[in-house]
Amino acid sequence: MKPIEEYVRSIPDFPEQGIIFRDVTSVLQDADGLHLAVDLMQGKLDGVEFDVIVGPESRGFIFGVPIAYNLHKPFIPIRKKGKLPCETVSIRYDLEYGTAELEVHRDAIKEGQKVVIIDDLIATGGTNEAMIKLVEGLGGEVVKTVFLMELSGLEGRKRLKGYDVESVIAYPGK
């Protein structure tokens, strides 16, 4: 099996000039790449005590669910506004170009539960910061966040200072 970095397709000048887009779909489209990505992300949880995994729509679902399944842990979806049927709590946050809103069921996370966040990418850290606020607002404790890829040039870790953040692949640029 080749290294995980070789499964990621890099597309120059997308979505704008000077940006290199790191395409996770090329990982997903290869059985070995998907298997390796899940295994490597799951390996970042060795020795971590936790109760539940949360992940954002949609790529957090892709990686979070198989890890939760493998470790026999519940998976809590964090969705875009208006997609969950029961009572929710929500958070509005800033994106690079505009704003977004995330929701989770009010009863999804119990007071004192230890939570791991799984997602495909950390860029500026805004989405992850919003998820942390949702989890903590419900009384959960975020014990770790794991990403497949990190765009370290965007310094997302700075927004997550004080949290245990790990990525499988770190790209130096944006």
Q: Keyphrases for this structure?
A:
single chain, 174 residues, alpha/beta, Rossmann fold, seven-stranded mixed β-sheet, two-stranded antiparallel sheet, 5 helices, 26% helix, globular, Adenine phosphoribosyltransferase, AMP binding, adenine binding
Task: Characterise this structure.
The protein is 26% helix and 36% strand. With 174 residues, the protein is an alpha/beta fold. The protein has one domain: Rossmann fold. A 7-stranded mixed β-sheet has the order 5-6-4-3-7-8-9, with helices on both faces. A two-stranded antiparallel sheet has the order 1-2. Helix 2 crosses helix 3. The longest helix is centred in the first third of the chain and has 13 residues, at 31-43. The protein is globular and about 40 Å long. The model has no long low-confidence stretch (mean pLDDT 95).
The separation of the N and C termini measures 27 Å
Secondary structure: number of strands: 9
Which stretches are low in confidence, meaning pLDDT under 50 for 5 or more residues running?
Answer: none
Shape-level CATH architecture: 3-Layer(aba) Sandwich
Largest sheet: 7 strands, mixed
What is the H/E order?
A: EEHHEHEEEEHEHE
Can you give me a brief rundown of this structure?
This protein is α/β, with parallel strands linked by helices. It has helices at residues 25-28, 31-43, 59-71, 126-137, 156-159, and strands at 9-12, 20-23, 52-56, 75-80, 88-95, 98-105, 114-122, 141-151, 165-171.
